[in-house]
């Protein structure tokens, strides 16, 4: 395994008490594999990623347990300076909103070149040349001229390409993409996603794709991990999930998406709202919204049942769900 | 950019005319412009009438203003109460006040920004609360009280400095007066920097900089500070005009013979020429400083474009 | 690729619309902001208004409580100074000049032999009167002129903006020196008049932008489209939005006006004896600062605490009223 997250726990201290944003999450990514992490906002998918990257805001956040094993080392045990050298060089992150994630007062060329001067000790001149190469590589036209421009002078799609270029700069082994296309126009979403998938294949990197867009997932992901209220509720190869989900929440997500292969079927939304993380319901956190819920769901927290060798579901009634 | 500057310069004209006219009217209408011309005693009516005619004071005020402004633009600012040319007074007074203002600005930049960065990065910690409380106190205590107290402590009780500044007003004697002059703005700069740093610290691009694996120092200096200082720089720029105009109190406390001193004397002796002349220059400084700040803004923040 | 989804899925609408990182959602999902039971059921109670929310915050803010108590005390002693001092500020005995504190005269005597304690107590009256009256004048004049500019727009607005610029370009202390140096009245009115004259542009700018912002709000547009009358529009929809920023700035300005009065009095052009003012006393005490520092320190302290109280109060009110900081 390239990256293995084991039983990760993250808490936030808020005015109303302690929110368990990540409550015992485990997942893994192999080199060359794409893992899609799915869930609503507040499910803990981004917080998990931030904890893996080591960019969690502390305080209010706090990692209270677990391991993040990357290339054989537990990152949580590294000193900050060693951790910093991993960030950007061995694992990199692509953020959702490229406009706010790029520094508005530095030229994009400077921001890209910085990766080479800081991590590789290159001269400014060489770093600048590499920055232009990178911009070429993510297919930004007239890269040499545009390297001197500022983020606001680029279109949304071009900006996200710059974010991708920045993440790929040092050819890291793992990329974490947090909703990389959500902020883009639909017409550019596909282009950017394709570019990302292509470069990932070329460089043989592992990819964690955090998203709520099931359409994107089917196309590029190998495995899916579905999160709800800080926990993983289903983890499976992507095709198994599409064939038959083993958790009612996954089923709800799939049912609420229009699909070409199931034309004429009624679209259904999941009723209710995700829970307040300072007061997660006892038992299965999903039970107030679950169509299959029974008494046991209100009292016993379901473990991640082994559905098959490669598949797990945190539902007491995963068999019923599969048959449904 | 060029067109913007021209437009701004044109906009400055009515403000300049308005401000100078206002002061001109205040001095003329409220005071007796001839009163100061006969030295300490009152002028006898005959002399007064002669003087009035000589200075064109029997003409309507608007014409007086036009004549005065016409003279000003040819470099003639008139004569002060002691018979000296106002321009001569300016030549001795402005360098002193400029030195004083420079020191004040230096305090704002060095101390204000440093405190702001330290507190902004440690928001909610004891350092932050302490400095914040201190800045509140500094803002609240009027400058003349701060000045008198520091003069009492450092000058009289401990004897670290000369309580009053000698006539040459060299740089080293202006350090404490400069600090007093800067004090309120210094507190504002600290608070502004702190807010700006604290706000930007949670911004997405700072998170990106951290995710890039940059050393903490580089994240703070190159990414966080560069963005956070934009409002601070504009504040300090605009403050130049205020400092020079507000130096009256500081100059009085430390007996500094600068612009404020000359203005004070001019007002006490109701000398129109001195007061209006100095105020005209001050208003010009204020307007130009504001224009420079606006242009600086575009240099610092590439997102701003002036059409 | 399968087809792209153009609309955010219902169940995930929050993620798509908010687009925020999860951290913000955790912080945002406190009961005040999104009222809901632990089971995710509907809201409980009706939503609170800005004012009651602010008041709830203020009641728990120690800064607000302390400054409000100080101000209350100041107001009380300016209304009834004789409640805590039996002397008169104008009864002075030259033979006691510059003497230190002693029984019955806790703050000692000043250069004229006046009781510093009594003068300090009576000084509060002047400061509070000048501060409150000047602030009222500034707030009324500034709000009206600023709101007019915001409403009428066009030529009115540009003229008023230029006039505002003119007033901003004149250094305040300087203007005070020029205007007040020839005034011989020993009442507080010239000083108040002067502060109102130079202070209104600050409020008018705020009122103007508040009105313009409020006018562009969707609900005001909606009310207008529904045919709400102009006066109703102003009273019900626009005024309440402009009031909060004006109150905050006016509270802080009140403190600075008190400081300004003292500064002008210190320079000899503000209030004049026999008025009792901290500025006059500080000015009078400064020549013999070495022999009788107490005559300088007590009024200075009182002045500083008073100004501080108003500025802190304004700060606390702003924090409570600014929804961005919540």
Descriptive labels:
heterotrimer; A: 324 residues; alpha/beta; eight-stranded mixed beta sheet; 13 helices; B: mainly alpha; MetI-like fold; 2 domains; flat
TL;DR?
With 324 residues, chain A is an alpha/beta fold. Chain A has helices spanning 45-53, 80-86, 98-101, 108-120, 124-137, 143-146, 156-168, 186-203, 214-220, 238-243, 248-255, 295-299, 318-323, and strands spanning 3-14, 17-29, 34-38, 61-70, 73-74, 91-94, 174-178, 206-211, 223-228, 231-237, 305-308, 311-313.
Describe this structure in words.
The complex is a heterotrimer of chains A (324), B (307) and C (326). Chain A has 324 residues and is an alpha/beta fold. Chain A contains 13 helices and twelve strands. Chain A has helices spanning 45-53, 80-86, 98-101, 108-120, 124-137, 143-146, 156-168, 186-203, 214-220, 238-243, 248-255, 295-299, 318-323; strands spanning 3-14, 17-29, 34-38, 61-70, 73-74, 91-94, 174-178, 206-211, 223-228, 231-237, 305-308, 311-313. In chain A, the strands form two sheets. Chain A has an eight-stranded mixed sheet with strand order 6-7-8-3-9-10-12-11, with helices on both faces. A four-stranded antiparallel sheet of chain A has the order 2-1-4-5. Chain A is globular, with a radius of gyration of 21 Å. The mean pLDDT of chain A is 86. By secondary structure, chain B is mainly α. Chain B has two domains: 1-74, no CATH class; 86-300, MetI-like fold. Chain C has helices at 13-18, 22-28, 50-59, 62-79, 116-152, 154-169, 172-180, 189-216, 218-225, 230-266, 278-285, 293-321. Mean pLDDT of chain C is 75; it is low at 1-47. The interface between A and C is large, with 54 and 30 residues.
